[in-house]
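Usage

Read records sequentially. Each one opens with the input sequence:
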Amino acid sequence: MRLDIDQPRSLTEPERRVLDALLAPDFDGVEDLRAQALVVEVIGGYDCGCPTIYFVVPPNARPSDAVATGRRAPVEARVMNGSMELGDVILLFVDDGLSSLEYVWVGDAVPTQWPVPEQLAVVLTGSPAQGRQGRPPA
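and closes with the structure output:
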């Protein structure tokens, strides 16, 4: 279940590194999303203990038409252990701007922190995914 925090906060360094890694490849609208990433604030997380975070973008930040509202950005980061994929994926969602950075994992052990960029294989996924399949419920 989503947990909101009382005061919006800046991204932590690990959060910033993962978001920057996801926004490094070029895709339609990424420039707008990169501009939003400079001013985005964290407004919540998820109560399972995973590092998933929810964002708020200031109203004056440039809107992005990169991805329609309620969609997944056309990029993901696969969590690696050396050359082996662990099955965990980091997804970026957009709702009238950056809305969440979500850690989706396999197995019983809940990840509690973001992986370092060297553990990420960032790939473009083509057209934005429909809906919010694979996300924890808000």
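Summary fields computed downstream for this record:
- The chain has one domain: 2-124.
- Residues 2-124 form one domain.
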